[in-house]
Amino acid sequence: MCQCNQLPNVFLGNDESHPFDDTLEELEWAPQRWATLNRCPECGQLWHIDIAKQNDIGVCAKIPSREVWHQLDTTNLKVQLMVQNRGGLSDDTCQWKQCEEKCVKGLAFCPSHAYFEMDIKQ
Ligand SMILES: [Zn+2]
Ligand SMILES: [Zn+2]
């Protein structure tokens, strides 16, 4: 059995370091985006996997469809990963002026304000 179900939606990894043991089929290779699209032959789950890059964390992420992958902004995956690392969202509202988004747990800001404005990357 494959382990796709047990893996989180997004986690750290790249094409040289991931938990799939070469079981995935590579569908697309997009070096200009540092991205690969892969499919699990057992359950059909699509996976985005970053191409390994120096001084940058890579991400692996579940992808709902090929079309979504073509428009994928991997920065958003890193934002999701930061939120996931911190345990998700809280019920507080972001302190940023006029922002109504929920805060990341333990922070006073929503995911995008924490990541892009406060430079909280992990
Ligand atoms: Zn699978
Ligand atoms: Zn905000």
Brief summary of the model shown:
This protein has 122 residues and is α+β, with helices and mostly antiparallel strands. It is built from 3 helices and 7 strands, in the order E-E-E-E-E-H-H-E-E-H. The chain folds into 2 domains: 75 residues, no CATH class; 31 residues, no CATH class.
Instruction: List ligands, each type once.
Output: zinc ion
Q: What is the helix fraction of residues, given as a range?
A: 10-25%
Arithmetic mean of pLDDT: 95
Assembly state (oligomeric): single chain
Number of helices: 3
Low-confidence stretches: none
Largest sheet: 5 strands, antiparallel
- Give the end-to-end Cα distance, rounded to a whole number of Å: 31 Å
